[in-house]
Amino acid sequence: MDFTLKHALGSYTVHSAYGGLQEIGKYFKLDRRVLIVTDAGVPSEYARTAAAACKEPHIVTVPMGEESKSIETMKMLCEKMLAYGFTRKDAVIGIGGGVVGDLACFAASAYMRGIDFYNVPTTVLAAVDSSVGGKCGVNLAGVKNIVGAFYQPKGVLFDARLLRTLPKRQIAAGLAEAIKMAATFDESLFSLFETEEITENLYEQVIFRAASLKARIVEADEREGGIRKSLNFGHTYGHAIEAAGGMAQLLHGECVALGMLPFCSDAVYERLFGVLKRFSLPTALPFEARLALPYLSHDKKWGERGVDAVFCEAIGSFEIRTLTKDALLATIEGAQKRYR
Ligand SMILES: NC(=O)c1ccc[n+]([C@@H]2O[C@H](COP(=O)([O-])OP(=O)(O)OC[C@H]3O[C@@H](n4cnc5c(N)ncnc54)[C@H](O)[C@@H]3O)[C@@H](O)[C@H]2O)c1
Ligand SMILES: [Zn+2]
Asked: Probe ligand 1: pick from 38, 123, 168, max atoms within 8 Å of CB?
Protein backbone atom coordinates (compact mmCIF):
# COMPACT_ATOMS: atom_id res chain seq x y z
CA MET A 1 0.00 0.00 0.00
CA ASP A 2 1.37 3.38 -0.96
CA PHE A 3 0.24 6.95 -1.04
CA THR A 4 1.91 10.02 -2.43
CA LEU A 5 2.19 13.31 -0.66
CA LYS A 6 2.54 16.48 -2.71
CA HIS A 7 4.19 19.52 -1.20
CA ALA A 8 5.44 22.92 -2.33
CA LEU A 9 8.72 21.56 -3.68
CA GLY A 10 7.63 18.21 -5.09
CA SER A 11 6.24 14.97 -3.75
CA TYR A 12 7.21 11.74 -2.08
CA THR A 13 5.75 8.34 -1.41
CA VAL A 14 4.79 6.75 1.87
CA HIS A 15 5.12 2.98 1.51
CA SER A 16 3.30 0.72 3.90
CA ALA A 17 4.70 -2.79 3.59
CA TYR A 18 4.55 -5.53 6.20
CA GLY A 19 8.14 -6.82 6.49
CA GLY A 20 9.25 -4.05 4.13
CA LEU A 21 12.38 -3.21 6.13
CA GLN A 22 13.96 -6.39 4.76
CA GLU A 23 13.66 -4.86 1.30
CA ILE A 24 14.41 -1.25 2.16
CA GLY A 25 16.65 -0.91 -0.91
CA LYS A 26 13.55 -1.35 -3.04
CA TYR A 27 12.05 1.83 -1.63
CA PHE A 28 14.99 4.17 -1.04
CA LYS A 29 18.14 5.04 -3.03
CA LEU A 30 20.87 3.61 -0.83
CA ASP A 31 23.89 3.18 -3.13
CA ARG A 32 25.71 6.00 -1.38
CA ARG A 33 26.84 7.13 2.08
CA VAL A 34 23.92 6.78 4.47
CA LEU A 35 23.77 7.97 8.07
CA ILE A 36 21.34 5.68 9.87
CA VAL A 37 20.06 7.35 13.03
CA THR A 38 18.27 5.30 15.66
CA ASP A 39 17.90 5.30 19.45
CA ALA A 40 18.89 2.83 22.13
CA GLY A 41 15.28 1.79 22.79
CA VAL A 42 14.66 0.71 19.20
CA PRO A 43 15.79 -2.88 18.57
CA SER A 44 19.26 -2.51 17.05
CA GLU A 45 18.56 -5.14 14.42
CA TYR A 46 16.31 -2.66 12.60
CA ALA A 47 19.25 -0.33 11.89
CA ARG A 48 21.47 -3.27 11.03
CA THR A 49 18.93 -4.60 8.56
CA ALA A 50 18.79 -1.22 6.85
CA ALA A 51 22.59 -0.95 6.90
CA ALA A 52 22.91 -4.22 5.02
CA ALA A 53 21.13 -2.58 2.08
CA CYS A 54 23.35 0.52 1.95
CA LYS A 55 26.58 0.95 0.02
CA GLU A 56 28.30 2.87 2.83
CA PRO A 57 26.22 2.79 6.02
CA HIS A 58 27.10 4.56 9.25
CA ILE A 59 24.84 3.75 12.20
CA VAL A 60 24.52 6.31 15.00
CA THR A 61 22.55 5.27 18.10
CA VAL A 62 21.49 8.13 20.35
CA PRO A 63 20.14 7.66 23.90
CA MET A 64 16.38 7.08 23.94
CA GLY A 65 14.05 9.80 25.14
CA GLU A 66 13.16 13.40 24.50
CA GLU A 67 16.59 14.63 25.75
CA SER A 68 18.13 13.43 22.50
CA LYS A 69 16.11 16.04 20.62
CA SER A 70 18.77 18.66 21.30
CA ILE A 71 21.08 21.00 19.43
CA GLU A 72 24.02 19.06 20.89
CA THR A 73 22.85 15.75 19.43
CA MET A 74 22.04 17.40 16.12
CA LYS A 75 25.55 18.91 16.08
CA MET A 76 27.02 15.47 16.80
CA LEU A 77 25.15 14.01 13.81
CA CYS A 78 26.44 16.79 11.54
CA GLU A 79 29.97 16.28 12.85
CA LYS A 80 29.72 12.57 12.06
CA MET A 81 28.59 13.32 8.52
CA LEU A 82 31.46 15.74 8.06
CA ALA A 83 33.98 13.24 9.44
CA TYR A 84 32.63 10.49 7.16
CA GLY A 85 32.93 12.79 4.15
CA PHE A 86 29.21 13.12 3.44
CA THR A 87 28.42 15.22 0.36
CA ARG A 88 25.17 16.69 -0.94
CA LYS A 89 24.58 13.43 -2.78
CA ASP A 90 24.43 11.35 0.42
CA ALA A 91 21.47 10.63 2.68
CA VAL A 92 20.14 10.21 6.21
CA ILE A 93 17.65 7.58 7.40
CA GLY A 94 15.81 7.91 10.71
CA ILE A 95 14.73 4.56 12.18
CA GLY A 96 12.69 5.10 15.30
CA GLY A 97 9.88 7.07 16.83
CA GLY A 98 9.18 10.78 16.67
CA VAL A 99 12.32 11.63 18.63
CA VAL A 100 14.61 10.01 16.09
CA GLY A 101 12.58 11.25 13.12
CA ASP A 102 12.52 14.88 14.26
CA LEU A 103 16.21 14.85 15.12
CA ALA A 104 17.51 13.01 12.06
CA CYS A 105 15.32 15.05 9.71
CA PHE A 106 16.54 18.30 11.23
CA ALA A 107 20.18 17.24 10.83
CA ALA A 108 19.47 16.27 7.21
CA SER A 109 17.72 19.58 6.58
CA ALA A 110 20.75 21.56 7.75
CA TYR A 111 23.77 19.55 6.62
CA MET A 112 25.05 21.23 3.44
CA ARG A 113 21.72 23.11 3.38
CA GLY A 114 19.79 19.90 3.01
CA ILE A 115 20.52 16.33 1.96
CA ASP A 116 18.07 13.53 1.27
CA PHE A 117 16.14 12.25 4.26
CA TYR A 118 14.23 8.99 4.56
CA ASN A 119 12.05 8.04 7.49
CA VAL A 120 11.27 4.59 8.88
CA PRO A 121 8.79 5.25 11.70
CA THR A 122 8.81 2.48 14.31
CA THR A 123 6.14 3.82 16.66
CA VAL A 124 2.46 4.33 15.90
CA LEU A 125 2.76 8.00 16.77
CA ALA A 126 5.62 8.44 14.32
CA ALA A 127 3.78 6.53 11.58
CA VAL A 128 0.51 8.44 11.82
CA ASP A 129 1.76 11.81 12.90
CA SER A 130 5.41 12.89 13.12
CA SER A 131 6.60 11.22 9.90
CA VAL A 132 3.94 13.02 7.86
CA GLY A 133 4.00 16.74 7.33
CA GLY A 134 7.66 17.73 7.15
CA LYS A 135 7.98 19.35 10.55
CA CYS A 136 11.26 18.58 12.27
CA GLY A 137 13.35 20.10 15.01
CA VAL A 138 14.81 19.93 18.47
CA ASN A 139 14.12 21.32 21.95
CA LEU A 140 16.06 24.17 23.51
CA ALA A 141 16.14 25.46 27.08
CA GLY A 142 13.19 23.27 28.00
CA VAL A 143 11.01 24.57 25.17
CA LYS A 144 9.78 21.82 22.87
CA ASN A 145 10.43 21.96 19.13
CA ILE A 146 11.55 25.58 19.33
CA VAL A 147 14.34 25.22 16.77
CA GLY A 148 13.45 23.41 13.60
CA ALA A 149 12.44 23.46 9.98
CA PHE A 150 9.86 22.36 7.48
CA TYR A 151 11.77 19.71 5.56
CA GLN A 152 10.09 16.98 3.55
CA PRO A 153 11.53 13.48 3.39
CA LYS A 154 12.39 11.82 0.09
CA GLY A 155 10.42 8.79 1.22
CA VAL A 156 8.80 7.07 4.17
CA LEU A 157 8.62 3.33 4.81
CA PHE A 158 6.14 2.05 7.37
CA ASP A 159 6.64 -1.61 8.24
CA ALA A 160 3.94 -2.66 10.72
CA ARG A 161 6.07 -5.69 11.65
CA LEU A 162 8.37 -3.31 13.55
CA LEU A 163 5.53 -2.55 15.96
CA ARG A 164 5.73 -6.09 17.37
CA THR A 165 8.42 -4.95 19.80
CA LEU A 166 6.65 -1.73 20.78
CA PRO A 167 5.01 -1.82 24.24
CA LYS A 168 1.19 -2.02 24.09
CA ARG A 169 0.88 1.25 25.97
CA GLN A 170 2.93 3.05 23.30
CA ILE A 171 0.76 1.49 20.60
CA ALA A 172 -2.43 2.73 22.24
CA ALA A 173 -1.00 6.20 22.81
CA GLY A 174 -0.11 6.50 19.13
CA LEU A 175 -3.54 5.26 18.13
CA ALA A 176 -5.06 8.16 20.09
CA GLU A 177 -3.74 10.48 17.36
CA ALA A 178 -5.31 8.26 14.71
CA ILE A 179 -8.61 8.20 16.63
CA LYS A 180 -8.41 12.01 16.78
CA MET A 181 -8.05 12.26 13.00
CA ALA A 182 -10.86 9.77 12.41
CA ALA A 183 -13.16 11.65 14.80
CA THR A 184 -12.67 14.95 13.01
CA PHE A 185 -12.37 13.77 9.40
CA ASP A 186 -13.41 10.23 8.65
CA GLU A 187 -16.42 8.50 10.12
CA SER A 188 -15.76 5.22 8.30
CA LEU A 189 -12.27 5.04 9.84
CA PHE A 190 -13.77 5.87 13.22
CA SER A 191 -16.21 2.99 12.92
CA LEU A 192 -13.30 0.59 12.33
CA PHE A 193 -12.03 1.57 15.74
CA GLU A 194 -15.48 0.80 17.14
CA THR A 195 -16.13 -2.52 15.51
CA GLU A 196 -13.13 -4.33 14.02
CA GLU A 197 -11.31 -7.00 15.92
CA ILE A 198 -8.09 -5.60 17.38
CA THR A 199 -5.34 -7.38 15.48
CA GLU A 200 -2.00 -6.54 13.90
CA ASN A 201 -3.84 -6.23 10.62
CA LEU A 202 -6.21 -3.63 12.06
CA TYR A 203 -3.24 -1.62 13.30
CA GLU A 204 -1.68 -1.65 9.86
CA GLN A 205 -4.94 -0.59 8.23
CA VAL A 206 -5.88 2.21 10.58
CA ILE A 207 -2.34 3.56 10.70
CA PHE A 208 -2.14 3.67 6.93
CA ARG A 209 -5.50 5.39 6.66
CA ALA A 210 -4.74 7.90 9.40
CA ALA A 211 -1.35 8.73 7.87
CA SER A 212 -2.92 9.30 4.47
CA LEU A 213 -5.59 11.43 6.10
CA LYS A 214 -2.92 13.56 7.72
CA ALA A 215 -1.16 13.78 4.37
CA ARG A 216 -4.32 15.15 2.72
CA ILE A 217 -4.68 17.72 5.50
CA VAL A 218 -1.05 18.78 5.26
CA GLU A 219 -1.23 19.00 1.48
CA ALA A 220 -4.16 21.33 1.76
CA ASP A 221 -2.39 23.45 4.34
CA GLU A 222 1.37 22.89 4.40
CA ARG A 223 2.24 25.71 6.75
CA GLU A 224 -0.63 25.61 9.22
CA GLY A 225 -2.88 28.45 8.18
CA GLY A 226 -6.26 26.75 8.35
CA ILE A 227 -7.51 23.18 8.36
CA ARG A 228 -4.24 21.85 9.73
CA LYS A 229 -5.41 23.39 12.98
CA SER A 230 -7.96 20.59 13.15
CA LEU A 231 -5.06 18.31 14.09
CA ASN A 232 -5.05 20.11 17.41
CA PHE A 233 -8.27 18.37 18.45
CA GLY A 234 -7.61 17.12 21.97
CA HIS A 235 -4.39 19.10 22.23
CA THR A 236 -5.43 22.39 23.86
CA TYR A 237 -6.35 20.73 27.12
CA GLY A 238 -4.19 17.68 26.34
CA HIS A 239 -1.02 19.76 26.48
CA ALA A 240 -2.10 21.20 29.83
CA ILE A 241 -2.76 17.70 31.19
CA GLU A 242 0.65 16.67 29.90
CA ALA A 243 2.33 19.63 31.59
CA ALA A 244 0.41 19.11 34.82
CA GLY A 245 1.01 15.37 34.69
CA GLY A 246 4.14 15.36 36.80
CA MET A 247 4.01 12.19 38.78
CA ALA A 248 1.25 10.74 36.67
CA GLN A 249 3.69 10.22 33.76
CA LEU A 250 1.07 10.10 31.06
CA LEU A 251 2.20 9.65 27.47
CA HIS A 252 1.40 12.39 24.96
CA GLY A 253 -1.24 10.31 23.18
CA GLU A 254 -2.92 9.47 26.49
CA CYS A 255 -3.18 13.20 27.21
CA VAL A 256 -4.67 13.77 23.75
CA ALA A 257 -7.24 11.08 24.49
CA LEU A 258 -8.21 12.84 27.71
CA GLY A 259 -8.02 16.25 26.06
CA MET A 260 -10.67 15.38 23.47
CA LEU A 261 -13.40 14.50 25.96
CA PRO A 262 -14.57 18.04 26.90
CA PHE A 263 -14.51 19.32 23.33
CA CYS A 264 -17.28 17.33 21.73
CA SER A 265 -21.04 16.88 21.72
CA ASP A 266 -22.72 14.35 24.01
CA ALA A 267 -23.23 11.97 21.10
CA VAL A 268 -19.58 12.17 20.05
CA TYR A 269 -18.52 11.81 23.65
CA GLU A 270 -20.37 8.49 24.01
CA ARG A 271 -18.72 7.01 20.94
CA LEU A 272 -15.30 8.44 21.71
CA PHE A 273 -15.44 7.16 25.27
CA GLY A 274 -16.24 3.68 23.98
CA VAL A 275 -13.33 3.70 21.55
CA LEU A 276 -10.85 4.98 24.14
CA LYS A 277 -11.93 2.22 26.52
CA ARG A 278 -11.69 -0.36 23.78
CA PHE A 279 -8.05 0.59 23.13
CA SER A 280 -7.16 0.77 26.84
CA LEU A 281 -6.64 4.51 26.71
CA PRO A 282 -7.32 6.51 29.87
CA THR A 283 -10.72 8.17 30.33
CA ALA A 284 -10.31 9.35 33.91
CA LEU A 285 -7.96 12.12 34.91
CA PRO A 286 -5.33 11.19 37.47
CA PHE A 287 -6.10 14.52 39.20
CA GLU A 288 -8.99 16.99 39.42
CA ALA A 289 -9.70 18.63 36.06
CA ARG A 290 -9.09 22.12 37.38
CA LEU A 291 -5.54 21.27 38.50
CA ALA A 292 -4.43 21.32 34.89
CA LEU A 293 -6.05 24.70 34.24
CA PRO A 294 -3.08 26.86 35.27
CA TYR A 295 -1.03 25.13 32.59
CA LEU A 296 -3.35 26.30 29.85
CA SER A 297 -1.85 29.76 29.98
CA HIS A 298 1.52 28.36 29.00
CA ASP A 299 0.10 27.36 25.67
CA LYS A 300 1.95 29.43 23.09
CA LYS A 301 -1.14 29.63 20.89
CA TRP A 302 -3.03 32.22 22.97
CA GLY A 303 -3.91 35.05 20.57
CA GLU A 304 -5.37 38.43 21.36
CA ARG A 305 -8.97 37.23 21.26
CA GLY A 306 -8.29 33.96 23.03
CA VAL A 307 -7.35 30.49 21.96
CA ASP A 308 -8.54 28.46 18.99
CA ALA A 309 -10.02 25.22 20.24
CA VAL A 310 -11.17 22.40 17.99
CA PHE A 311 -14.61 20.93 18.67
CA CYS A 312 -16.16 17.78 17.27
CA GLU A 313 -19.96 18.04 17.16
CA ALA A 314 -20.44 15.03 14.87
CA ILE A 315 -18.01 12.24 14.03
CA GLY A 316 -16.21 13.05 10.79
CA SER A 317 -16.36 16.81 11.24
CA PHE A 318 -14.84 19.59 13.27
CA GLU A 319 -15.19 23.27 13.97
CA ILE A 320 -12.74 25.76 15.36
CA ARG A 321 -14.01 28.15 18.01
CA THR A 322 -12.00 31.01 19.40
CA LEU A 323 -12.57 30.95 23.14
CA THR A 324 -11.68 33.49 25.77
CA LYS A 325 -9.85 32.06 28.70
CA ASP A 326 -13.02 32.09 30.78
CA ALA A 327 -14.99 30.25 28.12
CA LEU A 328 -12.24 27.68 27.81
CA LEU A 329 -12.16 27.13 31.56
CA ALA A 330 -15.95 26.80 31.62
CA THR A 331 -15.82 24.17 28.85
CA ILE A 332 -13.32 22.10 30.75
CA GLU A 333 -14.91 22.46 34.17
CA GLY A 334 -18.33 21.74 32.70
CA ALA A 335 -17.00 18.46 31.36
CA GLN A 336 -15.68 17.18 34.65
CA LYS A 337 -18.32 14.43 34.83
CA ARG A 338 -17.14 13.06 31.49
CA TYR A 339 -14.01 11.78 33.19
CA ARG A 340 -15.00 8.43 34.60
N1 LIG B 1 7.28 16.37 13.55
C2 LIG B 1 6.01 16.29 13.90
O3 LIG B 1 5.12 16.72 13.18
C4 LIG B 1 5.65 15.66 15.22
C5 LIG B 1 4.32 15.34 15.49
C6 LIG B 1 4.02 14.71 16.68
C7 LIG B 1 5.03 14.40 17.58
N8 LIG B 1 6.32 14.73 17.30
C9 LIG B 1 7.42 14.41 18.24
O10 LIG B 1 7.51 13.01 18.37
C11 LIG B 1 8.13 12.69 19.60
C12 LIG B 1 7.42 11.54 20.25
O13 LIG B 1 7.49 10.42 19.39
P14 LIG B 1 7.19 8.95 19.92
O15 LIG B 1 5.93 8.93 20.66
O16 LIG B 1 7.36 8.04 18.75
O17 LIG B 1 8.32 8.73 21.03
P18 LIG B 1 9.81 8.16 20.97
O19 LIG B 1 10.46 8.44 19.68
O20 LIG B 1 10.48 8.63 22.19
O21 LIG B 1 9.57 6.58 21.07
C22 LIG B 1 8.99 6.06 22.25
C23 LIG B 1 9.85 4.95 22.85
O24 LIG B 1 9.69 3.76 22.11
C25 LIG B 1 10.94 3.20 21.75
N26 LIG B 1 10.72 2.53 20.47
C27 LIG B 1 10.53 3.12 19.27
N28 LIG B 1 10.21 2.20 18.36
C29 LIG B 1 10.19 1.01 18.98
C30 LIG B 1 9.90 -0.32 18.55
N31 LIG B 1 9.50 -0.58 17.32
N32 LIG B 1 10.00 -1.30 19.47
C33 LIG B 1 10.36 -1.03 20.76
N34 LIG B 1 10.60 0.20 21.22
C35 LIG B 1 10.53 1.20 20.33
C36 LIG B 1 11.88 4.36 21.73
O37 LIG B 1 13.21 3.94 21.98
C38 LIG B 1 11.35 5.23 22.84
O39 LIG B 1 11.88 4.83 24.06
C40 LIG B 1 8.10 13.97 20.42
O41 LIG B 1 9.40 14.50 20.51
C42 LIG B 1 7.21 14.90 19.63
O43 LIG B 1 7.56 16.25 19.76
C44 LIG B 1 6.64 15.34 16.14
ZN1 LIG C 1 -0.19 15.07 19.33
From this structure: 123
